[in-house]
Design brief:
Elements lengths: L1 H15 L3 H15 L3 E7 L5 E5 L3 H9 L7 H8 L4 E2 L8 H12 L5 E8 L5 E8 L3 H27 L15 H11 L4 H8 L3 H15 L4 H10 L6
Antiparallel strand pairs: 1-2, 1-5, 3-4, 4-5
Helix pairs in contact: 1-2, 1-6, 7-8, 7-9, 7-10, 9-10
């Protein structure tokens, strides 16, 4: 319950921020949400400019650039080749340059475990959201199993906000809700129980659940409360 509330608070903060500095401030809080050592968001916009926000030590960032590690980093190659999340331990670390890179990263405190989510946007925009941690395989497996869906949601929230900073692009708009979805969220927002909403709309609770889940997906919300908050903020419902 505490995790969901904290995650919800960060997603709302992402919605509200209007500055690049705001993104750095928010990603500083991500580690606490997922219980990891580091979090990072990096994107390349449609003009080819690079932006980075994260908690890696400045010495590692400088070292990464100095050594041009982007050319040998298996995570970068893995994310470019895939559309789904990349667990670092499933990448090929056998080539000597990759082993040397990993040794250097560990010495700089990056962590021996990582989970990177590649995101492709319009006009060539590409981004990666990553969390990394130092722990054994069993603990990491439990952590990613518990939080992977929330990590993916977080990644897309960061990316949606990043797209607002594209000079020639307006912010992404949430998909419009259907009349039934609006009715369901409005009644829930004013305090009706699910049973009362279903009775008022003359539908089954199963059908109501379909409407709520559909609205939640369109709004990019982690739960019903977050969906209602997003719908109110965007003006889709009025309470």
């Amino acid at each position: 319950m505490g995790h969901k509330a904290e995650l919800n608070r960060i997603l709302e903060a992402l919605d509200a921020t209007g500055t690049l500095d705001g993104l750095q401030s928010i990603i500083d809080q991500v580690c606490g949400v997922f219980g990891v050592d580091h979090a990072m968001y990096h994107w390349v916009d449609s003009a080819g400019d690079h932006y980075y926000f994260g908690t890696y030590p400045p010495a590692w960032i400088e070292r990464y650039q100095e050594m041009a590690y982007v050319r040998v980093d298996p995570v970068v190659a893995g994310c470019y080749q895939r559309f789904h999340p990349v667990d670092w331990k499933r990448l090929d670390w056998s080539p000597k340059p990759a082993r040397e890179f990993l040794k250097d990263a560990l010495e700089h405190g990056v962590g021996n475990q990582g989970y990177s989510i590649p995101i492709r946007g319009p006009n060539g925009q590409f981004a990666v959201f990553t969390v990394s941690h130092n722990c054994d395989d069993e603990a990491w497996e439990k952590l990613t199993e518990r939080y992977s869906r929330d990590m993916i949601l977080m990644a897309h929230y960061f990316n949606r906000k990043a797209l607002e900073f594209e000079p020639s692009r307006s912010p992404e708009q949430a998909q419009p809700l259907s009349p039934r979805e609006v009715d369901a969220l409005t009644l829930l927002a004013i305090g009706y129980s699910r049973a009362q909403v279903a009775k008022t709309l003359a539908i089954s609770e199963h059908t109501l659940r379909v409407y709520i889940e559909s609205a939640r997906f369109k709004l990019g919300a982690i739960n019903t409360t977050h969906a209602i908050t997003r719908a109110v903020t965007l003006g889709f419902i009025v309470v």
